[in-house]
Amino acid sequence: MKRLKRLFIAIVFLLIFQGCTSYHGSTSEEPELVETVTTPYEYNDELGAGSELEIASEVDESESTPVDSLVDVDDEEEDDETEATNIRIQFAGDIFLHDGPMNVARTGERTYDFKPFFTHIQPFIDGDLAIANMEVPVDAHGGNEQLSSFPLFNSPFEILEGLQYAGFNHLISANNHSFDRGFQGLINTVNSFERAGINHTGMNTNWDDFNTPTMLDVGGIQVGIVAFTDSVNGEEGQVPEESLGYAVRRFRSHTLDDIPRMKQEMEILRDAGAELVIVALHWGAEYGDAPVEMQQLIARQLVDAGADIIMGKHSHTVHPVEWHYREDGTRGFIMYSLGNFLADQTRLTGASVHSQINEGWQHHQFIGRTQFGMLVSLEITRNLSGEIIIDTADILPTLCMRDFSGNTLGVVDGVAIMPLVSGEVPDFITEEDIRLWGRVAYEHVANIAGSGEILNTSAD
Ligand SMILES: [Zn+2]
Prior knowledge:
Layout: E1 13-18, E2 34-38, H1 68-71, E3 85-95, H2 99-105, E4 129-134, H3 158-166, E5 170-172, H4 182-196, E6 199-201, H5 207-211, E7 214-218, E8 221-229, H6 244-247, H7 259-271, E9 276-282, H8 293-304, E10 309-313, E11 321-325, E12 331-335, E13 340-342, H9 346-354, E14 372-382, E15 388-402, E16 415-419, H10 431-450
Parallel strand pairs: 3-4, 3-13, 4-5, 5-6, 8-9, 9-10, 10-12
Antiparallel strand pairs: 1-2, 1-15, 3-14, 7-8, 11-12, 14-15, 15-16
Zinc ion binds next to loops.
């Protein structure tokens, strides 16, 4: 059978940046930055013309990172001061559930199972810290009584179990949908995170929560996280006035005026012991392929002010990533928008993708860029001098497929988040589908994430 045939469809899209740049403090020697970009296996035109997919056995492993290296990571936790400490932190974009995926996951009147969505991506989510953006509220554990989707979302509790199965152990919860179900919805969401035993940053049920910085011991490295959103979709009225100050951290993404305040928040994390600071920003316009200039200014100024990693999101489409170098030669990593990880916005942007592809459009015409995402993996080291360094950034393009055979929202057989590297194809996806969509998604993500400054930053 064509289906279930083991496929090697695409690629690890690998951005290796080998450097000796110190992070917090200057070094006496000039950092020598060697940057390579490798593409172990590329689609060729034949793949789109109905030929059998080929196994990518010709991968030149001398120049590429073997796929297995994304899967098998040593979990050595060595606090020995004579050895460097290495951790992996991973980032994925928006998780939100429209009717289609909820219907697929339904197992009973008010029970759900989302784990099958993640079967194919799960082997790749192995970071010591793996963070996704939980875009929407989650219903109270054991309840699922007030579920809803667009435009005011409330997702089943079981999505958290699915995300944990996938390998995520931290969620960002400050988003434009944070107030979709009012302040009680926010409280329910936080309670559900706690019931599931999954950490989160963003929503706060009181001032104590707000004032307690997110500090994580990740394999011996202290990681601080702070999350901001530039919008709550105008739903402030759903939250008591006295709670608005702490419910989620706000900022404005059309001005630089909030940077001093955001810098203070980063300093609070440093004071709490953070060696690595992650700033999550929910921001910008939806559905574009790039940030606006103000977003670039904000992200770069935050890095200049001490942020190590900017985790941007909200556009539901993939944006470029970049290293930003501070004056002292150290650098931070900016992800302007990770795109969707689990979503069903296919009708929204299908037309724009339609124009990009002139063949293969039949019953799957509604798939779009909002189904493409990326799983970003950062390898981070504390060296023997105690400096924290982001050694490498790898991008794995992903594709959230769903069955469209019914061509009606709610009439679907399956949803799967596919790593565009290898794996078995789910029953509801044909080889034709994956040949077409795998290629389109891969090329799109590669073009976007690789088209920015990241490829042009040469060694000085
Ligand atoms: Zn959003």
